[in-house]
Design brief:
This protein has about 110 residues and is an all-alpha fold. It has one domain: Cytochrome Bc1 Complex, Chain F. It has four helices and no strands. The radius of gyration is 18 Å and the shape is flat. Helices cover about 65% and strands about 0% of the residues. It comes from Diatraea saccharalis (sugarcane borer). Its main location: mitochondrion. This is Cytochrome b-c1 complex subunit 7. Belongs to the UQCRB/QCR7 family. One of its GO terms (biological process) is mitochondrial electron transport, ubiquinol to cytochrome c.
Length: about 110
């Protein structure tokens, strides 16, 4: 019983923090906010074109809304349950490959 209560509380805190961050009010997803270093750029290169196009649309819309100093209507906000990590697994794979390559070059 205590574990279930803790899980519910933890999930509610995640939703609260997600909404507090504010990027969802512009229609962005968590992975849209990643800093674009070399690993993220490589991961973006590996994504299918339609996913990159969707990401670019969200980014341009968010920039436009920010310049207009407005946000989307509440029904268009990205919901915590709908936000999926589409880029993070690929970024982790790219980092792993880079570290493996660096280790290989160091040893051989």
């Amino acid at each position: 019983m205590a574990l279930r209560t803790t899980a519910v509380l933890c999930n509610n805190m995640k939703k609260w923090a997600y909404n507090l961050a504010g990027f969802n009010k512009y229609g962005l997803m968590r992975d849209d906010c990643l800093y674009e270093n070399d690993d993220v750029k490589e991961a973006l290169r590996r994504l299918p074109d339609h996913v990159v196009d969707e990401r670019n649309f969200r980014m341009v819309r968010a920039i436009q809304l920010s310049l207009q100093k407005t946000i989307l209507p509440k029904e268009e906000w990205t919901k915590f349950e709908e936000d999926k990590l589409y880029l993070t697994p690929i970024v982790e794979q790219v980092k792993k490959e880079r570290k493996e390559r660096e280790e290989w070059e160091k040893n051989y």
